[in-house]
């Protein structure tokens, strides 16, 4: 209940302190273009139907699997339909990831938190020439995600299974730079800050970081506030459910709150 009230209060505060969905009052050409050409863009892209059909199949799947959550340390039986309902990103938010990747064309993408793989597919299909590294702790969940990647004929995804505290540093060590990172793993303050610091060491000049559930809890909101103040961050965009960082040093430093 406490967390629920925090989210309600955070949403009300965000609503009254943010720019409109259309970007009225935003003077940055870069951010105005992000709002009008990416966030608000409504084109029904080729990948949407395929991925949403996979999501619908998952919603209808009542099979149970043993889920291990490295973030909480909890292991339990869960129905696949329940996982996609409660844990997978919505189509609206996942399709924003697709449009961002399509617009910015990152070559190396990290997806911290595969779950059942629908968001990963949106990332991979935004630029099929990119290499996507997606990280999942639970072997059973990862197995279903791998099947979804195969069914979608996604050839540019590398699935990294295991504890993110081990798999992320090992993968980053092999990469010269990272261009796009979606943080959707452990939704707690300290792990989020740790993942950010690790990926920051390899971020490219035009790098983009997207954080899920930045107002999910007081700890996540504190982590977001700390991250936004990092000197390498040039522009931050708070859409309430997700937060976006841009690192291009040519951008004028600014922080925006925008209705999604």
Describe this protein's structure:
By secondary structure, the protein is α/β, with parallel strands linked by helices. The chain is built from 10 helices and 10 strands. The protein has an 8-stranded mixed beta sheet, sandwiched between helices. Strand 6, helix 9 (189-200) and strand 7 (203-212) form a beta-alpha-beta unit. The longest helix has 16 residues, at 2-17. It starts with a helix and ends with a strand.
Task: Provide the low-confidence segments as ranges.
Answer: none
Write down the overall mean pLDDT.
94
**Main sheet summary:** 8 strands, mixed
Query: What overall geometry do the principal axes of the alpha carbons give?
Result: globular
Question: Which oligomeric state applies?
Answer: single chain
Q: How many H/I helices? A: 10
Biggest sheet strand line-up: 5-4-3-6-7-9-8-10
Distance between the termini: 25 Å
Give me the count of strands: 10
What is the SS-derived class? alpha/beta
Helix and strand arrangement:
Layout: H1 2-17, H2 29-39, H3 46-59, E1 64-68, E2 75-79, H4 80-86, H5 91-104, E3 108-112, H6 118-126, E4 131-136, H7 139-151, E5 157-161, H8 164-174, E6 178-183, H9 189-200, E7 203-212, H10 218-228, E8 235-238, E9 242-246, E10 254-257
Parallel strand pairs: 3-4, 3-6, 4-5, 6-7, 8-10
Antiparallel strand pairs: 1-2, 7-9, 8-9
